[in-house]
Amino acid sequence: MLSLAPEEVTAAQPAPQQAAAVPLIEVKGVRKEFPGVVALDDASFCLRRGSVHALMGENGAGKSTLMKILAGVQPPDKGVFRLNGQDVTLTSPLDALEKGIAMIHQELNLMPYMTVAENIWIRREPLGRFGLIDHGRMAEMTRQLLSELAIDIDPESLVRDLSISERQMVEIAKAVSYNSDVLIMDEPTSALTEHEVAHLFRIIKSLRAQGKGIIYITHKMNELSEIADEVTIFRDGRYIGCMQTERLDRDEIIRMMVGREVGDMFPKETAQIGEVVMSVRNLTLDGVFHDVSFELRSGEILGVAGLIGSGRSNVAETLFGVTPASSGSISLFGQPVTISSPKVAMSHGMAFLTEDRKDTGCFLKLSIQENMQISVLGGDNVQAGFVRQSALSSVCEEMSATLRVKAPGLYERVENLSGGNQQKVLIGRWLLTNPRILILDEPTRGIDVGAKAEIHRLISRLACQGVAVIMISSELPEVLGMSDRVMVMHEGRVTGILDRSEADQVRIMQLASH
After folding, report:
1. FRET pair for 381, CA 20 to 30 Å: which of 92, 287, 403, 478?
2. Looking at 238-242, 286-290, 362-366, which range is the least confident one?
3. pLDDT for 131-161, tens place per residue?
4. Do domains 18-100+180-258 and 272-349+435-514 have the same CATH topology?
5. What is the pLDDT of residues 42-100, one digit of tens each?
6. Rounded to the nearest 5°, which phi and psi values hold at 110?
7. Alpha-carbon gap, residue 244 to 246, rounded angstroms
8. Which residues, including other chains, have CB under 8 Å from residue 161's CB and lie 6 or more apart?
């Protein structure tokens, strides 16, 4: 079982096994097509034993597709796969696991109505007398595994009761429990706090020191120098290049990823700050957050910072009527309102991009167009009881092009898109409503560096048009780069509101851990 390595294990100290001549995994000439899209074209990749190999590229570059093939989720159209120098064919996720390849997917795949222990040991449950599952022993096995990973979660907890970050840790524990030689991590830190990220990195470094090979998909440039030994870049389904971490050049990686210069990551324009459009006084949701007060003005971007569990997302949900407040008041455009449901919020010109695109955002089985147009099905878009489909198709096509959604067409199912492109579809849905107040909860989570700059530019442009924006983000550079003011929360309370000129990472973290 895993034993956490000392803090001294760093990316600059690969394990001795890393020098082995035979790669742990070698991939050559892989091609994969979906209807209307070539996801991979002559793709190659190589993973050495005892190393962390980062994989980067824009959304739709083919990273996750290649990893799903390696994990046995999807079959390749052609290509050569070698494991420890031997040709292999991976026929299913179970086949990949039996061959020593485990994957933590970007979209978490836990079963919400089962316990943590049941999720981790499914199909491998310890049996007692008469062939029945020994739940006591399974709980103890889980407790030992979580203890060795220093993860503080009750094995008997139902997954549905866990936070997103806790579910991410359960996924990690589940993958580690297979004792696989290869561990694939697809955006593992997207839902983790800074403290949890440091914890995950300690786990990864310990696994590497044991000779495991880690494939690490990420969009976060700052993680590379800390955790990766090598970085491979994909673009448009093709291998572009590979470099050692010590030779890392951030600008060169971005150019390789996007095939162009990205420019300023935080293109904040100077917007004219207008009148107060939202006034919140002593807003409270019993047991969740208390006495939240702030004002929001037209043309303003109000950043909301705080550690996971601080109540940031809960406040956003209450403002939009998902969970109506226990007490307190909200005024919009100078008039007191009671926001009892999202429908009421939308009638007042509000829009809300939720934190979890899979569970509370996208309709995965529906098309891009159906996901976008659902927010504007009514009014002028319906005549005599019939939807003006051609008009809606036109605006959805324009929005899809503006956000650079990579898909064969508007009728592609959203479940077939990469996580970042799903996020773009959700943003497009709400922009079609022409909101006066836009609430964004983690708007660039899981989005590549090129698309992030585009989303930031779009947010800034909306502010210049007079839209009032509330932007919740776990990434402090994003909060600092885009906000006119920053509201910081800790344990359900506002601990400070900082002007752009006085906000910095140190001050925000002091308030966030108040």
Report:
1. 403
2. 362-366
3. 899 999 999 999 999 998 889 999 999 999 9
4. yes
5. 999 999 999 999 998 876 788 888 999 999 989 999 999 999 999 999 999 889 988 99
6. -80, 160
7. 6
8. none
Question: pLDDT tier at 383 (50, 70, 90 boundaries)?
Answer: low
Position with higher pLDDT, 97 vs 165: 97
Cα separation, 182 vs 176, whole angstroms: 10
pLDDT at 107: 64
Three-class DSSP category at 79? strand
- Evaluated on CA atoms 6, 10, 13, 18, the torsion sign reads positive
Residue 102 to residues 166, 170, 175, 179, 465: CA-CA distances in angstroms?
A: 19, 14, 6, 9, 47
Contact indicator for 300, 468 with CB cutoff of 8 Å: yes
Cα-Cα-Cα-Cα torsion 306, 309, 311, 313, nearest 10 degrees, comes to 90
Report residue 2 as tokens. Answer: 């895993």
Q: What pTM did the predictor assign? A: 0.60
For 310, other C-beta atoms within 10 Å of its C-beta total 25
Residue from 423, 449, 368, 454 nearest 106 by CA: 423
Instruction: List the one residue out of 208, 244, 223, 215 whose CA is nearest residue 13.
Output: 208
Q: How many CB atoms lie within 10 A of CB 271?
A: 21
Q: Are 158 and 164 in contact (CB under 8 A)?
A: no
Which residue type occupies 13?
Q
CA 323 – CA 325 distance, rounded (Å): 6
336's tokens: 């007191």
272-349+435-514 CATH: 3.40.50.300
What CA–CA distance (Å, rounded) separates 493 from 17?
49
AA identity, residue 11: A
Looking at the structure, give the CATH architecture of the domain made up of residues 18-100+180-258.
3-Layer(aba) Sandwich (3.40)
Neighbouring C-beta atoms of residue 164, cutoff 10 Å: 16
> For residue 387, what pLDDT band results from cuts at 50, 70 and 90?
low
Query: DSSP state, 190?
Result: T
CB neighbours of residue 466 within 10 Å? 17
Q: How far apart are CA 381 and CA 181, in angstroms?
A: 55
Tokens of 384: 């005599």
Among residues 364, 369, 451, 357, which one has the least CA distance to residue 416?
364
Contacts of 331 (CB under 8 A, 6+ apart): 278, 279, 280, 281, 337
52: nearest Cα among 280, 215, 258: 215
Domain boundaries, the chain: 18-100+180-258, 113-177, 272-349+435-514, 365-434
- What residue ranges in 354-436 does DSSP mark as E strands? 382-383, 386-387
Query: Contact at 8 Å (CB) between 320 and 361?
Result: no
Question: What sign has the CA pseudo-torsion 396, 398, 401, 407?
Answer: positive
Whether 209 and 5 have beta carbons less than 8 Å apart is answered as: yes
